[in-house]
Amino acid sequence: MNAPLRNGPASFDDLAPWLLAQPPSLGPVRLVAVDGHAGSGKTTFSGRLAAALGGAPVLHLDDLATHEELFEWTGRLREQVLDPLGRGETARFRAYDWVTRRFAPPEREIGPEPVVLVEGVGAGRRALRPHLACLLWMELPHEHSWERGQLRDGAELSDFWDGWMRAERGHFAADPTRPYAELLILQRGGGYEVLPGPHKTTTTPRGRT
Fold this sequence. Notes:
The chain is an alpha/beta fold and about 210 residues long. The protein is about 30% helix and about 25% strand. A six-stranded mixed sheet has the order 2-5-1-6-7-8, covered by helices on one side. Strands 3-4 form a two-stranded antiparallel sheet.
Protein backbone atom coordinates (compact mmCIF):
# COMPACT_ATOMS: atom_id res chain seq x y z
CA MET A 1 0.00 0.00 0.00
CA ASN A 2 2.64 2.46 -1.14
CA ALA A 3 0.74 5.01 -3.25
CA PRO A 4 -2.79 6.41 -3.24
CA LEU A 5 -5.18 4.25 -5.24
CA ARG A 6 -6.70 6.15 -8.14
CA ASN A 7 -10.25 6.27 -9.48
CA GLY A 8 -11.84 4.96 -6.32
CA PRO A 9 -15.37 3.53 -6.14
CA ALA A 10 -18.22 6.02 -6.27
CA SER A 11 -20.61 3.90 -4.16
CA PHE A 12 -20.88 0.71 -2.14
CA ASP A 13 -22.12 -1.12 -5.24
CA ASP A 14 -18.85 -0.23 -6.98
CA LEU A 15 -16.65 -1.27 -4.07
CA ALA A 16 -16.48 -5.05 -4.57
CA PRO A 17 -15.54 -4.96 -8.28
CA TRP A 18 -13.09 -2.14 -7.58
CA LEU A 19 -11.34 -4.19 -4.89
CA LEU A 20 -11.16 -7.22 -7.17
CA ALA A 21 -9.48 -5.05 -9.79
CA GLN A 22 -6.63 -4.14 -7.42
CA PRO A 23 -3.38 -6.14 -7.61
CA PRO A 24 -2.79 -8.85 -5.00
CA SER A 25 -0.99 -7.57 -1.92
CA LEU A 26 -0.19 -10.76 0.03
CA GLY A 27 0.80 -13.66 -2.21
CA PRO A 28 -2.30 -14.28 -4.35
CA VAL A 29 -4.58 -12.44 -1.89
CA ARG A 30 -5.92 -8.90 -1.86
CA LEU A 31 -5.92 -8.24 1.88
CA VAL A 32 -8.46 -5.54 2.77
CA ALA A 33 -8.59 -4.00 6.24
CA VAL A 34 -11.72 -2.53 7.83
CA ASP A 35 -10.72 -0.40 10.81
CA GLY A 36 -12.49 2.05 13.07
CA HIS A 37 -13.37 2.66 16.68
CA ALA A 38 -15.07 -0.06 18.70
CA GLY A 39 -18.80 0.08 18.01
CA SER A 40 -18.44 1.83 14.65
CA GLY A 41 -20.11 -0.98 12.69
CA LYS A 42 -17.06 -2.77 11.26
CA THR A 43 -18.43 -6.29 11.67
CA THR A 44 -21.78 -5.54 10.03
CA PHE A 45 -20.16 -3.65 7.17
CA SER A 46 -17.59 -6.41 6.62
CA GLY A 47 -20.37 -8.96 6.39
CA ARG A 48 -22.15 -6.87 3.76
CA LEU A 49 -18.93 -6.39 1.80
CA ALA A 50 -18.02 -10.07 2.04
CA ALA A 51 -21.41 -11.00 0.58
CA ALA A 52 -20.94 -8.49 -2.25
CA LEU A 53 -17.59 -10.15 -2.96
CA GLY A 54 -19.30 -13.52 -3.38
CA GLY A 55 -18.59 -14.85 0.10
CA ALA A 56 -15.09 -13.55 0.81
CA PRO A 57 -13.64 -14.79 4.12
CA VAL A 58 -13.56 -12.36 7.03
CA LEU A 59 -10.98 -12.50 9.81
CA HIS A 60 -12.29 -10.89 13.00
CA LEU A 61 -9.44 -9.56 15.12
CA ASP A 62 -11.50 -10.29 18.25
CA ASP A 63 -10.63 -13.92 17.51
CA LEU A 64 -6.90 -13.20 17.91
CA ALA A 65 -6.96 -10.67 20.77
CA THR A 66 -7.29 -11.64 24.44
CA HIS A 67 -8.23 -9.93 27.69
CA GLU A 68 -4.53 -9.47 28.46
CA GLU A 69 -3.50 -8.67 24.87
CA LEU A 70 -6.12 -6.32 23.49
CA PHE A 71 -3.71 -5.00 20.84
CA GLU A 72 -0.64 -7.23 21.15
CA TRP A 73 -1.76 -9.77 18.54
CA THR A 74 0.47 -8.80 15.62
CA GLY A 75 2.83 -11.76 16.00
CA ARG A 76 -0.07 -14.21 16.23
CA LEU A 77 -1.66 -12.71 13.12
CA ARG A 78 1.57 -12.84 11.15
CA GLU A 79 2.42 -16.44 12.07
CA GLN A 80 -1.03 -17.99 11.81
CA VAL A 81 -2.62 -15.95 9.00
CA LEU A 82 -0.35 -13.63 7.00
CA ASP A 83 2.54 -16.04 6.48
CA PRO A 84 0.46 -18.95 5.13
CA LEU A 85 -1.73 -16.71 2.96
CA GLY A 86 1.39 -15.08 1.57
CA ARG A 87 2.57 -18.55 0.50
CA GLY A 88 -0.79 -19.26 -1.13
CA GLU A 89 -1.71 -21.70 1.66
CA THR A 90 -4.72 -21.98 3.96
CA ALA A 91 -4.42 -20.13 7.28
CA ARG A 92 -5.46 -22.12 10.37
CA PHE A 93 -6.04 -20.79 13.87
CA ARG A 94 -8.12 -21.19 17.01
CA ALA A 95 -10.32 -18.29 18.04
CA TYR A 96 -10.17 -16.78 21.51
CA ASP A 97 -13.22 -17.50 23.68
CA TRP A 98 -14.00 -14.33 25.64
CA VAL A 99 -16.05 -16.29 28.19
CA THR A 100 -13.63 -19.12 28.99
CA ARG A 101 -10.57 -16.89 28.35
CA ARG A 102 -8.71 -19.37 26.17
CA PHE A 103 -8.12 -20.22 22.53
CA ALA A 104 -10.63 -22.97 21.94
CA PRO A 105 -11.36 -25.52 19.21
CA PRO A 106 -12.53 -26.06 16.57
CA GLU A 107 -9.72 -24.88 14.33
CA ARG A 108 -10.81 -22.22 11.85
CA GLU A 109 -9.55 -21.89 8.29
CA ILE A 110 -9.16 -19.01 5.85
CA GLY A 111 -8.14 -19.91 2.32
CA PRO A 112 -6.07 -17.77 -0.07
CA GLU A 113 -9.15 -16.31 -1.77
CA PRO A 114 -8.95 -13.37 -4.20
CA VAL A 115 -10.03 -11.03 -1.37
CA VAL A 116 -9.70 -11.63 2.37
CA LEU A 117 -11.16 -9.07 4.77
CA VAL A 118 -9.62 -8.39 8.18
CA GLU A 119 -11.81 -6.34 10.48
CA GLY A 120 -11.30 -4.93 13.93
CA VAL A 121 -9.78 -2.07 15.85
CA GLY A 122 -6.20 -1.84 14.66
CA ALA A 123 -6.70 -3.70 11.38
CA GLY A 124 -4.90 -0.86 9.62
CA ARG A 125 -1.98 -0.70 12.03
CA ARG A 126 1.53 0.11 10.88
CA ALA A 127 2.70 -3.51 10.84
CA LEU A 128 -0.17 -4.61 8.57
CA ARG A 129 -0.25 -1.76 6.06
CA PRO A 130 2.55 -3.13 3.83
CA HIS A 131 0.40 -6.25 3.25
CA LEU A 132 -2.85 -4.44 2.40
CA ALA A 133 -4.46 -3.92 -0.98
CA CYS A 134 -6.77 -1.33 0.59
CA LEU A 135 -7.48 0.20 3.98
CA LEU A 136 -11.03 1.28 4.83
CA TRP A 137 -11.97 3.37 7.84
CA MET A 138 -15.45 3.46 9.39
CA GLU A 139 -16.10 7.18 9.71
CA LEU A 140 -17.83 7.47 13.08
CA PRO A 141 -16.33 9.55 15.94
CA HIS A 142 -15.20 7.50 18.92
CA GLU A 143 -17.73 9.15 21.24
CA HIS A 144 -20.64 7.85 19.14
CA SER A 145 -18.93 4.50 18.47
CA TRP A 146 -18.25 3.78 22.13
CA GLU A 147 -21.76 4.85 23.15
CA ARG A 148 -23.25 2.49 20.57
CA GLY A 149 -20.93 -0.33 21.65
CA GLN A 150 -21.84 0.05 25.32
CA LEU A 151 -25.55 0.09 24.54
CA ARG A 152 -25.03 -3.08 22.50
CA ASP A 153 -23.10 -4.94 25.20
CA GLY A 154 -25.09 -3.89 28.26
CA ALA A 155 -24.18 -2.82 31.80
CA GLU A 156 -22.52 -6.15 32.67
CA LEU A 157 -19.57 -5.21 30.45
CA SER A 158 -19.14 -1.65 31.74
CA ASP A 159 -15.86 -2.48 33.50
CA PHE A 160 -14.48 -4.02 30.31
CA TRP A 161 -15.47 -0.93 28.33
CA ASP A 162 -13.68 1.36 30.80
CA GLY A 163 -10.46 -0.55 30.24
CA TRP A 164 -11.06 -0.85 26.51
CA MET A 165 -11.49 2.89 25.97
CA ARG A 166 -8.18 3.63 27.69
CA ALA A 167 -6.45 0.94 25.62
CA GLU A 168 -7.96 2.13 22.34
CA ARG A 169 -6.97 5.74 22.99
CA GLY A 170 -3.44 4.61 23.68
CA HIS A 171 -3.30 2.43 20.57
CA PHE A 172 -4.49 5.08 18.13
CA ALA A 173 -2.30 7.74 19.76
CA ALA A 174 0.77 5.60 19.08
CA ASP A 175 -0.34 3.99 15.81
CA PRO A 176 -3.15 5.93 14.08
CA THR A 177 -5.03 4.35 11.20
CA ARG A 178 -7.37 6.97 9.75
CA PRO A 179 -4.62 9.12 8.14
CA TYR A 180 -3.64 6.11 6.00
CA ALA A 181 -7.12 5.05 4.87
CA GLU A 182 -7.78 5.09 1.11
CA LEU A 183 -11.54 5.06 1.68
CA LEU A 184 -13.89 6.34 4.37
CA ILE A 185 -17.14 4.43 4.98
CA LEU A 186 -20.14 6.33 6.30
CA GLN A 187 -23.32 4.56 7.32
CA ARG A 188 -26.37 6.26 5.84
CA GLY A 189 -29.64 4.74 7.00
CA GLY A 190 -29.60 1.15 5.79
CA GLY A 191 -26.71 1.68 3.37
CA TYR A 192 -23.20 3.04 3.11
CA GLU A 193 -21.53 6.02 1.48
CA VAL A 194 -17.96 5.58 0.21
CA LEU A 195 -15.67 8.62 0.24
CA PRO A 196 -11.99 9.16 -0.58
CA GLY A 197 -9.76 8.86 2.46
CA PRO A 198 -6.83 11.01 3.61
CA HIS A 199 -4.30 8.31 2.63
CA LYS A 200 -0.67 9.06 3.44
CA THR A 201 1.92 7.16 1.45
CA THR A 202 3.88 4.64 3.49
CA THR A 203 7.62 4.30 3.11
CA THR A 204 7.91 0.62 4.01
CA PRO A 205 8.00 -1.66 0.92
CA ARG A 206 5.00 -3.97 0.63
CA GLY A 207 5.58 -7.38 2.15
CA ARG A 208 7.97 -6.12 4.84
CA THR A 209 7.39 -4.85 8.40
